[in-house]
Amino acid sequence: MLAAIKRGWQKRSLRDDRYLALFDEHPDELVSVDCETTSLNVGEAELLSIGAVKIRGNRILASETFDVLVRPEHRPGAKNVSVHGLRPRDLSAGLTPADAVGRLLDFIGGRPLVGYYLEFDVAVLNKYVKPLIGSTLPNRQVEISARYYDYKFRQHPDSHVDLKLQTLIDELKVPALPRHDAAGDAITAAMLYLALKRRGFG
Known about the structure:
Elements: H1 2-13, E1 29-37, E2 47-56, E3 59-69, H2 78-84, H3 88-91, H4 97-108, E4 113-115, H5 118-133, E5 141-143, H6 144-155, H7 165-171, H8 182-198
Parallel strand pairs: 1-4, 4-5
Antiparallel strand pairs: 1-2, 2-3
Helix pairs in contact: 4-5, 6-8
Protein name: 3'-5' exonuclease
InterPro entries: Ribonucl_H (IPR013520), RNaseH-like_sf (IPR012337), RNaseH_sf (IPR036397)
GO molecular function, one term: nucleic acid binding
């Protein structure tokens, strides 16, 4: 009930009818999304790159991958470069945040979003989405770590559940891709989602 009220308010807040497609959920498709940012503090974080890939049924549509660099307002520090490998000169040719997010919205449409600690990525994206369309993202969200927690809790109700990404990758036997690459991390999250789905936690 509350979710329906929130979606209704978000729909009324739209500034442009082009974004009504965000409210048309696809019955058999989802989008796995990941963002690389300048900070883990939502208030300070700027987008550096966005990666996303569509999931249809039990397949990852690798041919339908979204992968863009974003030109941040502030120059990334050396520590940030060491994590993501994205140098200022790499980002100088990136899209503006508004352009990158606009293209992402066209890519995802109304599909539910999948991700590992997705709440952070969505919170950062919403900093750019709301000024652009008048509303935050209305898409349903599927949190991988929560699905994995339920999966492990069902097996061992009294045990501690390790939610580190590498633990999920090892436990669910998903191929390890290079980390801190937005498109690669989105594909990893998609593989984890399908692995959990095969175990009854999709």
